[in-house]
Amino acid sequence: MNPTDSNIDIEFRSVEEIRDYQNLRLREALRYLAGNSPYYRRMFSREGIDVESILTIDDLVKLPFTEKKDLQLYNDEFLCVGKEKIIDYVTTSGTLGDPVTFGCTEKDLQRLAFNEKKSFECAGLRPGNIVQLMTTIDKRFMAGLAYFLGIRELGASVIRVGNGMPELQWDTIRRLRPDTLMCVPSFILRLIEYAERHGIDYRNSSVRRIIGIGEGLRNQDFSLNLLGSRIREKWDVDLFATYSSTEMGATFSECAFACGGHVHPELIIVEIIGDDNLPVADGETGEVVVTTLGVEGMPLLRFRTGDISCKITTPCRCGRNSYRLTPLVGRKNNMIKLKGTTIYPPAINDVLDNTPYVVNYVVEVGSSFAGTDEVAVKVGVASQCGFDMIKDLKDRFRSRIRVAPIVEIMSPEDVNAILNPGSNRKPLKFIDRRPQSLTSKP
């Protein structure tokens, strides 16, 4: 996976060297797709595209996008190798209901390990660190396997505890003394609550670093958001945010200076696309579109992630010259226009995650008779408080996002039944009931 003959990491090379390197890897990726991918061969033929004419990243605008529904409708046609070469199968959610399957070869698993090794190094991990992994490694998830492979490649130690189970987590921390926790950040609040209830001196535990996955910890200006601030107020640990997805097979991790997730140029090319489907200027917000590099089983070309972010190209104080991504604003398809105000679900989640009496919740979006967005928040509370919780919640929403959704108070058990219907691997915190177009061009 070394990008050059030099021992200098490509991320620390000049911007010009990084760009030249990515241009070279892009041309290699296009030739591989043209020679091995049934889906992209057909697309190139249909669109009259000669891949040899695509020489630089700037030429990517000449190529169509790949969307999630394409992966679902033509899943097998994205596979570039015989199925006998597939070592591991993973799945991710699909826009049409059924999950999308990805096949990983041995080379792909090595690439995953390299990716996570670099991301962990970015977050300050070295051989000798002990990482308590609070995410599942089963259920066809890629993430847990990737983290395990990366920690192993780095030479650090891993404790595979899995998600949930605060009692087991604290027992493991007491017995094995990890210095790093890797988990969904909101679970840290549950760990803290459990520790305070059971007299555990968590502030003086062995833990010094928390790497967050799946949820944001920072605002667009890189300050801690409400969730990050709440954790830090309780527990003086170093917080690192990451962004990744199964489709990318790559992770963007913060360094110690916490000014965006670093892109690994060996593994991925990132474009930020505006509403006109053209690249926006650096520093402007748009949709994250990725082209994977070095993937053997199911590489992707100009894949629309649906995530909204922006690219930061100023040098980082850590010395890396690769560009970075800001914390995600939200998902393009989940954008809500409520009473004239544009918001994304993470802003709603941030309010609810930081309301002490809220146990769990579901956000539902639908369309009114007039075609405008309607937002209803179903909130689970353990017991009635001595004040008007609906008014309190609406006041919290207005102070944070300027508008207030419909609020319905329910029991945690009733909310949990909506969150976990049984057929999904992840809790359904956001349910979009608005009509959507699901057509796709073969």
Question: Keywords for this structure?
Answer:
442 residues, alpha/beta, Rossmann fold, GMP Synthetase, Chain A, domain 3, 2 domains, 6-stranded mixed beta sheet, 11 helices, 23% strand
Overview of this structure, please?
The protein has helices at 15-36, 38-47, 68-73, 106-122, 143-154, 166-176, 185-197, 226-234, 345-353, 389-401, 412-419, and strands at 88-92, 100-104, 130-133, 157-160, 180-183, 209-212, 238-245, 250-253, 261-262, 268-273, 285-292, 303-312, 324-325, 330-331, 336-338, 341-343, 358-367, 373-381, 406-410, 430-432. With 442 residues, it is of the alpha/beta class. It folds into 2 domains: 1-331, ANL, N-terminal domain (Rossmann fold); 335-432, ANL, C-terminal domain (GMP Synthetase, Chain A, domain 3). The model is unreliable at 1-5 and 437-442 (pLDDT under 50).
Weakly predicted, low-confidence segments: 1-5, 437-442
Please indicate the count of domains. 2
> Mean pLDDT, nearest integer?
90
Task: Tell the overall outline.
Answer: globular
Distance between the termini: 34 Å
Q: Helical region count?
A: 11
Give the neighbour order of strands across the main sheet.
4-3-5-6-7-8
**CATH topology title of the largest domain:** Rossmann fold
The CATH architecture of the largest domain is: 3-Layer(aba) Sandwich
The total strand number stands at: 20
- Biggest sheet architecture: 6 strands, mixed
Fraction of helical residues:
25-40%
Percent in strands: 15-25%
Structural class: alpha/beta
What is the top-level CATH class of the largest domain? Alpha Beta
Q: So, the CATH homologous superfamily of the largest domain? A: ANL, N-terminal domain
Gyration radius, rounded: 22 Å
